[in-house]
Amino acid sequence: MDFTNRSSARAGVWLFILVLTILLAACGGDDHHHDQRDNNPPVDNGGDNNGDDNGSEPPDTTALINRDSALNLMAQTILSSNTLLMLFDPVTQLMYAPAIYCDDPATADAELGEDFRTEQVTYQDCQLNDDGYQRIQNGGLSMIYDGEGVDAPIHVLADNLTVETRESSDGEITVHTLTLDGAFTVSLLPEPVEFSFVDVNMRLAVDYHREVEGDPTPIDAQSLRWDFQDYDSRFALANDGNADNSIDGRITFHGELAGSADASTSIPIHFSDNTCPDLGALDLADDDDSSANLTFNGDELVLTTNGNGETLTCDTLAPYLQDIYRVLPYAF
């Protein structure tokens, strides 16, 4: 086994994920947007919600996708796809070190193949404790490898895997719990760098709350749930060193906006150091023949819902991104 090539490729993995993590952090970094919102979605600045302008009809609120829900669903689609990317490094580390996140290796029951790669691992209260940080892992993972190289696809089956992280700061604990249940295939192409998550048929859930140290009562509890079906998400390193994300597949949303939609990118979504993507086009279509397209071009966004278009700015989308991003962990 060529550990030199593996180390070089993994260095690229870390750099790429670090860059994307920093870029995505911009979604939560502009607090003045967050402070101005209330418990209701912000009003789009492209027209009157009553549908009186230009003789248009009131929006159809029975379909999943309508003028009032479109931006929220777009933000969820973008950030749920990025959450998949955060799974890449933990999965690849578990190939050769199934107990890497366990202070007590006995809490990780692993089966290794002839090449010493992990084929199956079950966690039972696997804990990693550091100064102000705790990680608790339960559930199982199975892995099948399509070859021996660093770019060989890995077929992963998650059996109700939960990863809880607890971070303490200034007397407060921030808690994130990630749950995976289902299958996906992950692969890395080193040159040019591309991370792929394909054939994703999986439930992905993130739960968030805060606690005061010494009092486990949850504060500001929030949850996100997505089901992916025949879903592909690919991240490529762009010429400017940032990331392009291509999406294709079906996603089911839960919560107040519940329903399924087919998602695709006619132009890959490009992330830079802005709060919003600055290039790309994302399409959503639900089962009621309702659809939306969001096109990014610098700070200008064009939202088209059921054929009706309006020009927006990043300020309109940012609160949705920030609300969702706050629930997501920075890394697993």
Given helix and strand content, the structural type is alpha+beta
Number of domains: 1
Helical coverage, percent range: 10-25%
Number of helical runs?
A: 5
Spatial separation of the terminal alpha carbons: 27 Å
β-sheet strand percentage: over 45%
The radius of gyration is 21 Å
What overall geometry do the principal axes of the alpha carbons give?
globular
Q: What kind of sheet is the major sheet?
A: 13 strands, antiparallel
**What is the number of strand segments?**
13
Please list the strands of the largest sheet in the order they lie side by side.
1-2-3-4-5-6-7-8-9-10-11-12-13
Taking all residues together, what is the mean pLDDT? 82
Low-confidence stretches: 1-61
In N-to-C order, the SSE pattern is: HHHHEEEEEEEEEEEEEH
Structural descriptors:
13-stranded antiparallel beta sheet
Explain what this protein looks like in three dimensions:
There is one protein chain. With 332 residues, the chain is of the alpha+beta class. It has one domain. Helices cover 20% and strands 48% of the residues. The protein is built from 5 helices and 13 strands. It has helices at residues 3-25, 31-36, 70-85, 88-94, 314-327, and strands spanning 108-112, 118-130, 133-145, 154-169, 172-189, 194-212, 215-237, 243-253, 259-271, 279-286, 291-297, 300-305, 308-313. A 13-stranded antiparallel sheet has the order 1-2-3-4-5-6-7-8-9-10-11-12-13. A hairpin with a 2-residue loop joins strand 12 and strand 13 (308-313). The longest helix has 23 residues, at 3-25. The model is unreliable at 1-61 (pLDDT under 50).
